[in-house]
Amino acid sequence: MSAPPMSVTRDQLLSVLDSYVHPLIGRGLVAAGAVARAEVQDDTAQVVIELGFPVQGISADLAQELGAKLNAELGLIAELAIGKRIDTHGARANLQTLPGIRNIIAVASGKGGVGKSTVAANLALALHAEGARVGLLDADIYGPSQPRMFGVSSARPTSPDGKRMNPVPAHGIQTMSIGYLVDEDQPMIWRGPMVTQALGQLLNETIWDDVEYLVIDLPPGTGDIQLTLSQRIPVSGAVIVTTPQEIALLDAKKGLQMFRRVEVPVLGIVENMAWYDCGDHRDYIFGQGGGERMAAQYGVELLGQLPLSTPIREQADNGQPIVVAAPDGEAAQTYRQIARRAAAQLAYGTPAADFPTIEISDD
Question: Was 117 annotated as part of a binding site?
Answer without folding.
Answer: yes
